[in-house]
Amino acid sequence: MPDASLPPRLGRYLLPVGVFLAALLYILANAVGHYAQDEERYVYYAHNLLRGFYAPPDTLYIWNGPGYPLFLAPFVFWNIPLIFAKACNAIFLAAAAFFQYRTLTFYLPPRTALLLTTVFSLYAGVFGLAWLPLLMTEAICYFLISGGAYFLCRASRSSESVSYLWIAAAFFGYLALTKVFFGYVLVACAALCLGLRVFQPTRAISSAGFIFAGALLFCLPYLLYTYALTGRIFYWANSGGTALYTLSAPEPNLLGDIFPLNIVSEYPEIFPSQSAYLPSLSQLNHVEYNSALLREAVRNIRNHPLKALLNWRANLNRLIMDFPFSTFPGSHSRLNTGNWSLVYFPAFFLSLFLLFPTLLRWRHFPAEILILVGVLALSLVAFSLVSSYARFVYPLLPLLLLWLGGVWARALRIRVVPA
pTM of the prediction? Predict the structure, then answer.
């Protein structure tokens, strides 16, 4: 009699191999020889790290965290062609699929876990096609969240969990260093776990609180560096001002997405409320410039609350469907078509589908799954408050898969009624 467990055992290795080969072939077929989107900036910071600093001390330009430049630094140091760094995205996706499958097996039979992971890997692969062949942070963040979720769940279920706690903290800490917005999410998660532990001191809540606090500790050297550089406590980056300022822009033709601020003075008829203000900031360093933009964004929201609300609603649409986008000189017309909406929207639809059974039977869910669903929800709320895009959702897809697994295991009942 054949061993019924053989297919899942093979599958947990064959699935990552299949994901790796498919992703690698796509990367090799679509990688370009010039910089695109944010690639040049990440390589620039990698060069800075090799020179012994991160942000230039004269401009204090800290647009993003050091996580991805640290990954790129060995390629830059040894002059390894960057196509190999791009190919590592295939490794990140394959490792993520392995972690996702192993996480689901805590709650589901191996066959079901393999089926869900396979289907979700296909969907995530299509979701991330636009960024997969690029030196972008989406693939590595997707991997870091998958690994962090696995070790958090394992630590919550194991009596000998100290090593798992620290490994999970390292995953989430490096996530915050790679995409600094998660640093603020970690603070909120740690505070919530601390509050919940007062009323319900379970192993899962205590473990999660330790992990999120440990992740922030992992980031402490970077935060001490930015403090020494800027004199600001808990200073992650100076890109937030631009993201909030553009979200608050009151012009009727703007929809809250980021636009290049250096074109404002060239087109005063398109940016009437900004054409006089922004040039006055040209002599500021990036820390002062970021603070000035944050103050002006708050002023815009106070003076134009309805427009700010409409921009926020458009921002939610971009998170869900990557549409709509503003039209201004130099904007890409293809971004205004919403032609990828059918790919991005199912993630939002699945979230709505999972919400009702979760609210109905939340007491039956493992606490660690509810905590990670909370991380998902807090991240989405936070992303909605600054100019965002559907690619910001991509690293969160592993948490959506885990949520689906929790509903499947604890809230879904499928009955076959004989005719």
Answer: 0.91
